[in-house]
Amino acid sequence: MSLAGRIKAANKPGPPEHSVLLRVAATGALAVGIAACAAEGELSVVVAGASIVAVVLGNLFSYRRRARPLPGLKVVLAVVAVVAFWRFYLAISAAHGVTNLAAVEGPLAVLFTWIQVTHSFDVPSRRDLAFSLAGSVTLMAVAAAQALDMTFALYVIAWAVCALVGMTAMWGSISGVGRPRLRTLVVGALTLVVVALACIIALPAPSVSSRLVFPSAIGGDVSIASPAGLEGTASGATFPVHAGSGRVAVGGFLGFAGPLDTAVRGALGRELVFRVRATQPSFWVAETFDNWDGQSWTEVAAKNHPGWREIGGGPPFALSSAGGAQDIQTFYLVQPGPNLVFHAEVASSVWFPAQRLFVDADGNIRSGTSMGSGSIYTVVSSVDNATTAELAEAPAPKLSPIDQARLTELPHPYPRVAALAAKITAHATNTEAKVLALEHWMSIHTRYTTDIPPLPKGADTVDEFLFGDRRGFCEQISTSLAVMLRTLGIPTREATGYVPGSYNPITDLYSVQAKDAHAWVQVWFPGFGWQSFDPTALVATVNPSPAATLGHDAIRALHRVPPVPTVLVAAALALAFFVARRRSQAPATPQAAVSAALERAARRAGLDPAPSESLSGLAARIDAHGPPPAGRPDARAVAAVAEESAFGGRALAGAVADRLVSDARALARRTSRRSPGRRPGQRGSDAASASSNEAPAASRGR
Amino acid sequence: MRPRGGWPRPTKAFGPIAGSIVVLLGWTAVAHNSGSGWVQALGGLLAGFVVAGLVGPSIACARLRVSVESNPGDGTVGRRVAIGVRANGPLRIEPVVPPGPAEVLGPGVGRFAVVPTRRGPLGELTIVVASAAPFGILWWRKRVVVPLVRPLWVAPVAGPPDPGLLAGSTLGAILDRQVPRDARFGEPRGVRPYEAGDPRRLVHWPATAHRGELMVREAERPEAAVPEVWVLLPDDGPAGDLVAERALGTLLALLARSAPVMLATIERGGSCVEPVYSPTDAGRRLARAVANRGSTG
């Protein structure tokens, strides 16, 4: 066949599809896809609503005209499709060009919707409906690319149901079965779930975070006035007025203010602060502090700043050219936050929707204005996670004299702390060993709690913590480690930010809650730069597999399942299944019911019905076994009526049929079981003369 | 006899499998590069559909059970024979031996047709059953041999009648007029006691009931000789079928003149010299006929 012939054959319209269920499912899948796009902001509500209505009307029209398509309709629809493509081209040309994929997504959703709406007016055959189902997948994909939270699961489930029903209806239409059977749907749904989970687990997904759990569930939100930092608008930020501006107390954590005051007792909530998409888990650094005054950490830069610099020109903002592996993080702010730009380790470039950013010598980044919820920015960081062996071989910390002094400076000598640190690290030969020895000691001798009394006026946080009851939270623990390290001459600074948060393998995002706010220590290693140490929670930042994450979550969810309602629901489902199964296996006609009942009666009596035996013959044997129940006809009479109605063309009235079946079942219930002592062939007058209740006794007496 | 079946195999699998792999790989690349977990989850669902659509039919096909519910006893080469079957699920049936048009049947009882290509008895059918459940993406098929409810005797098609035979002359091995006449044809004369070897159809039941012993009819020898046709097939292959076709054509021509016609054939149990009264009789006899393995006696 020539190419033209093949094309013509491929485009030959198929036979009209009569399955209403398939059409409804395809329409539903499209509607869900359009709604999902609208929910994720790809389509306006008006466009989405109009599109859904148009899709429904189009499919209705297609169904009515499936056998008689309108002449010239395809031409009109083709013109509309060309117009849609032209509008798409104009939209992306007017935006950022086709090189920016993010700018294409919106017009792409509109284009897909237009195509599907257009196509819905010409779906006469099964193949066209299959295309509609496939089109709904593209719409869902466009929406899924923008979905950030689990509410999108509702759309996915709705779409999956529509697609499942549509696909099984398609097979029903092919095979002529009609509506799909419930079992097919259930098996299909289970297959989908299992394979989808397996794929999510097995596919090379962007990786996941460590699971850091902090027992810091304290309610309340302490707000403080805007401390040091930048303020103003993106176009007119004034510098440097404050170290942070906007809302600095997020979920009760006060570490994003100018100073980190360890005397203040904050309260951490569980509200979602932001989500992060990252290639690997990290501490999300907000600020680092280098100046310790016995109670608060501050930035030297804030009071004696030589190097705050303003970076203009719009995104991307190039910050540093640090070595190490690149790690890209995208932050999706859920809560209004401070003007701090979070990042992992050392930020090298920032894609931030503003015209200017401010960076200090320690790598802290400020935006020109505070950020509201919905803000999105991306940071490219250089992550140099040195191994323990590498750190052990690192030479002793050497910095410029100014930095060495700044980063080991203490407000007073701390003799007891120094003696303790020296004692703990007596056998440590290098910086890394000293840090680990101190961490180990703190993990044994300190206890984490947020329920600690206020710091007495004039007291030193570290002295109070190490030589008091040694109870505190991340600020006290990390500060104590930092001070002990400084007494040993090791350059150290305090960092605040968030731990990675919980990873959601479905959304591929780290969900960072207010309770994930944290403070930890950074130690300088020549050749490796600042390395983070978290004495508060000795949890390695190792990537758990998605399978382990899902398994962990599943087990946790199972623990939360209330047993009694679950058992009740399971019992109800089992009962429903049992009833449905009984109904599906129930005899279709009264005659079949009578036959089944008489066979049951025969088996109870120990009479094996032969395959070739007629119902009357079997009934005769049953009657010979014993008399019928009182007030009931014998088996032969029941069988005669059943046979006459089944084969004689004599219809049974409803009441008569019910009575017949009732009689047969009564026979089945009352027929006595075969007595163990009965000899073969011993059924006859003596057995028949005994009543069903007397038969066992008669047998025993024989 | 129980149905015998093979392992399911996919039919025209390259397109669906290659298409599915391309779609899933593309989807994986997009999902991984976009970094969107929901795209990935959706891809997982898509993979679920693909896996269920590609692999599910193999299970459905393996679970398919087909049995013949009804079939006629007679058939003719080249003519459709309707076969009633019972299946435990929707399926497509494609008869292989003998061939026939493919039919899509639902669960329960259905019918399909076979077109016998060879003369002779048929005790079982070789069919290909296929299923694309649950989504109709890919067909998996398996070959099964299902026994018929009763043997299907396939008669040859009527070939051109032999002019020489119709003119009354012998035709080689096909016709031999030197065999003794049978006294079972002609005018009824009375009844006599049954003797070993008497055909069953000569039993006269009223007389048997009256006498209390088996009685058979007796007839006067006819005036005109009953045409006799001896069919000796050279083999059970196409050459034998060709001879059978010519014999049937000749028999039909003879029956059109006067019935019965004495037909001598060799069957599996030995030689059979019996009259045929109708085209159906003739077809059945020729369907049973086999090649002469021994002496032509």
Write the layout of secondary structure elements.
The complex is a heterodimer of chains A (702) and B (297).
Chain A lengths: L2 H8 L9 H20 L5 H20 L8 H22 L6 H19 L6 H19 L7 H24 L6 H21 L26 E3 L6 E5 L17 E2 L10 E7 L5 E6 L1 E2 L3 E3 L1 H4 L5 E4 L4 E2 L6 E9 L9 E2 L1 E6 L4 E4 L5 E3 L8 E8 L4 H6 L7 H8 L6 H10 L6 H15 L1 E2 L12 H6 L4 E2 L1 H14 L4 E7 L3 E3 L4 E5 L3 E9 L3 E5 L12 H15 L2 H23 L4 H15 L10 H11 L9 H13 L6 H17 L14 H5 L5 H7 L1
Parallel strand pairs in A: 16-17
Antiparallel strand pairs in A: 1-2, 3-7, 4-10, 4-20, 5-11, 5-18, 6-7, 8-13, 9-12, 10-15, 12-15, 13-14, 18-21, 19-20, 21-22
Helix pairs in contact in A: 2-3, 2-6, 2-7, 3-5, 4-5, 5-6, 6-7, 7-8, 12-15, 13-15, 18-19, 18-20, 18-21, 19-20, 20-21
Chain B lengths: L3 E2 L3 E3 L2 H21 L2 H27 L2 E5 L3 E3 L4 E7 L3 E7 L5 E3 L2 E7 L5 E12 L7 E17 L7 H4 L21 E6 L11 H7 L3 E5 L8 E3 L7 H20 L3 E7 L2 E7 L2 H10 L9
Parallel strand pairs in B: 4-10, 13-14
Antiparallel strand pairs in B: 1-10, 2-10, 3-5, 5-8, 6-7, 6-9, 9-10, 11-12, 14-15
Helix pairs in contact in B: 1-2, 5-6
In short:
The complex is a heterodimer of chains A (about 700) and B (about 300). Chain A is of the alpha+beta class.
| Uncertain parts of chain B | 169-181
Oligomer: heterodimer
Strand order within the widest beta sheet of chain A: 9-12-15-10-4-20-19
Class by alpha and beta content of chain B: alpha+beta
Distinct helical segment count of chain B: 6
Distance between the termini of chain B: 36 Å
**Structural class of the secondary elements of chain A?**
alpha+beta
Largest sheet of chain B: 7 strands, mixed
Q: Measure the end-to-end span of chain A.
A: 88 Å
- Helix % of chain A is 40-55%
User: Any idea what the shape of chain B is?
Assistant: elongated
**Main pleated-sheet profile of chain A:** 7 strands, antiparallel
Number of strands of chain A: 22
Q: What proportion strand of chain B?
A: 25-35%
Shape of chain A: elongated
Work out the count of structural domains of chain B: 3
Question: Which regions of chain A contain 5 or more consecutive residues with pLDDT less than 50?
Answer: 205-252, 539-544, 674-702
